[in-house]
Design goal:
Layout (H helix, E strand, L loop, with lengths): L10 E2 L14 H13 L2 H10 L33 H16 L3 H5 L13 H6 L4 E8 L6 E3 L2 E14 L5 E13 L7 H4 L2 E7 L9
Antiparallel strand pairs: 1-2, 2-4, 3-4, 4-5, 5-6
Length: 211
């Protein structure tokens, strides 16, 4: 993983509206995968993937169209509190790192409501990454924490990119991760006070929960 001036963290193999959402894959990429599978015989797709040179994965840079905001604020190396906005961004970083290492059960557990906010169980969550041979994410600087009714919310920009299994072609997409935790209220458990992913939504499909 790497940090850039925009607080980017590169993680391999990943990724919801504030209600129940599906897991962290972009709808456009998933639809593209289905279209390619339907239009191309499996043998031909496999041949194309194995024989043709793969196009390099070069996600747009911060400040460029399709890239994260060009945030040039220096990144503090000081320790941060888990309940801070930086703590929320760290959860997003951990989420993609877990998926990179194939620990999808643990990544699924980082969603709210014991994973239910992902829109499925752990098995269904893991299956959503089948259309990709590579899935990466750059993580941007978190926004300000919003408070209300004893709850806390924060959004973290994310740039996902990877490669489709059927064609070997890359894809790129911008999104936003919303995290939630309980505030410092009586009766809240340590688990409830920890940041969990509530939603991941992508810009090119603002009205539909991400997959």
């Amino acid at each position: 993983m790497r940090l850039t001036p925009a607080l980017l963290v590169a993680c391999s193999l990943a990724a919801c509206s504030l209600a129940a959402c599906s897991s962290g894959l972009p709808p456009a990429a998933d639809n593209a995968a289905n279209a390619e599978v339907n239009q191309t015989a499996p043998a031909a797709a496999e041949q194309a993937t194995s024989d043709a040179p793969l196009e390099p994965l070069n996600p747009p840079a911060p400040g460029q169209p399709g890239g994260l905001p060009d945030d040039r604020t220096p990144i503090s190396e000081a320790k941060f509190a888990p309940e801070s906005a930086q703590g929320a961004a760290n959860v997003v970083q951990t989420y993609y790192a877990l998926i990179e290492s194939g620990r999808t059960d643990e990544a699924w557990a980082l969603w709210s409501d014991g994973g239910k906010a992902s829109g499925g169980d752990a098995k269904a969550f893991a299956a959503r990454f089948a259309p990709y041979t590579e899935y990466h994410a750059n993580i941007g600087a978190p926004g300000q924490i919003e408070a209300g009714a004893g709850q806390r919310y924060v959004t973290v920009p994310v740039q996902v990119y990877g490669r489709m299994k059927a064609t070997g072609k890359p894809f790129y997409q911008l999104g936003e991760v919303t995290l939630h935790r309980a505030g410092d209220i009586d009766g809240a458990t340590a688990e409830q006070r920890a940041w969990h992913i509530r939603a991941i939504k992508f810009q090119d499909d603002p009205g539909k929960p991400a997959q």
